[in-house]
Structure formats: C-alpha cells, structure tokens
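Quick one: structure tokens for this chain, please?
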Amino acid sequence: MKKVILLLSLAFAFCANAQSTDSTAICQGLFTVSADVQVRFSPGNLQYQPSTNLWRFATEQTETIVWQSNFAKYHYKGWIDLFGWGTGMNPTNFSLRNQDYSFVDWGSFCGLPTNGGKRWRVLSMDEWTYLLSKRPNARRLYAIAYINKQYGLILLPDNWKCPKGVWVKPGPKEDQANWYTLEQWAKLQAAGAVFLPAEGKRVGTELQGSASCCHYWTSTASTKKNDQALYLLLNAFVPSGQTADKHYGFSVRLVQEM
C-alpha cells in the first residue's frame, strides 16, 4: 500500500512540474487512421530536458538530436528524444531490463499545450497500418525522402494536392526517393505534409544506426512476448510494423484526434 501511495505521489509531482516551451503549433494536414478517426500530427518529434523537467516538440519536423549523452539523468542540461516504451513518467529510464517498462502515454504527462482541449497521444499499430495501407489511396500518400540530406518518411494528408513547383514520387522504392531543399520542403509542409526523420535507436546509452532507420513507438504491446512492444520501422525504404524490446530508445511523434 505504501508503495502505491509513493508511486501516485511521484506521478502527481511529475504532472505538477511538467511544463512546455512550445507553442500551440500543429501540422495542418488531416490523416485518417481508422474508419472513423482523423488526426493531426504534432509539429515535430517529442523532446525532454532532464535538468528542468521540460517537454517540447522539435522546432522543425526535420530536427533530430544526433547525440544521446551518457549522462542524460536528472541533471543533464541538454535535450533527449529517444525514449524507452511508454516512459511518460520516467523519460530518463535507461534500464536494459524490459520488466522496468510499462506503457504510460507521453501525451498524458508531457504538459504540452493543446488545441481546443484535445489531448496528445501515440498512435496504435493498427492505426499506423490503416494510415499506410488501408485509407483511400493509401499507398500513394507516403514517400521516402531526403530533406536537406535528412532521411525519413513523408506522410501526405487525405486530401493531398501537390503545390506548384515541387513534386512527390510516392512509394517505397529506393529509385523513387525524393530529394528536397529546405525551401522545397517548406512548400510541401505548408500543403499539409508530415515528415518523420530517421534517427536510429538507443540501447542503454549507445546510439545505433542514426542516419539509416526510422523507429517510432506505437502504443501497442506485443501479444506474443511480454517484454516487447510494436513500433513503426522505416528500413530499406519500406515502412512496416515490427516488435522490439521495451527498453530500446525510439522516437516519439504525437497526434491529436480531430
């Protein structure tokens, strides 16, 4: 009983201290993620500063933090953006023990501003699957891209209309990868496009594969292995759902239901 009270006290303390340095900006494109749900994406990946207990979104969709400090504990003054599964209450959990991770949606604890009171949350694996393969014209509404040499996955909104002076070659093939300057990307972004930058993964305090792979957590636990959860992987130019140990540090992108 004492342990439960202590955990609740810590949770309330975390909520009280959580702040945001971010504005209410949100990506404007609408994306269907199930038969009756549309979402908008946050303006960038989720980031956390241990020394101040602050959460924020990356200031640009292309932004990643390429170095994960070995000292990213409560006193660390930099920002981190690769998190173990569901570490909303404990963002600096670098334990290699999967049993030390249970899902708490980051949107429940990040304290970031909302639009119209709509909460932030993480997509489930079923929602990612619907977005990439089941919504109308789904396979023509994502593309592989390099934006100012930053590799990642572009998601196009349901009612996509390509702006003049720029192009998008959809699909997962390497020879169809799109190359954009920041100025070209600005036009796509203004039309509602979303970019998921590749940052690799963190294992303990070691960063792996930073330039070659996207890893984005879902809210879905594995039904086959208690120590694993599902994530969205972009590897070899093909997005797919995969399972991984809960202690891996992956990127997090939040959404709001419309």
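The radius of gyration is 18 Å.
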